[in-house]
Amino acid sequence: MPIIHIEILEGRSDEKVRELINGITEITVQTLNVKPDQVRVIIHPIPRRYWGVGGITKEE
């Protein structure tokens, strides 16, 4: 049973998150030859103030 964790910046719509989960599930099914109900996708939205790039937060 594949378990896939994805960290993304918060703020994406529920629709976009559902599309991401669906797409990741489809490619995992094709690549690993597993059934869709065996795939687990967990989305971890990260607040912009906790995501740093180049020494500053994405909120800045």
Automatic annotation (TrEMBL):
Tagged with keyword Isomerase: yes
Enzyme class: isomerase
Catalytic activity, EC: 5.3.2.-
InterPro entries: 4-OT (IPR018191), 4-OT-like_dom (IPR004370), Tautomerase/MIF_sf (IPR014347)
Annotated 4-oxalocrotonate tautomerase-like domain residues: 2-55
Keyword terms, alphabetized: Isomerase
Annotated signal peptide: none
Family as reported in the entry's similarity comment: Belongs to the 4-oxalocrotonate tautomerase family.
Name assigned to this protein: Tautomerase
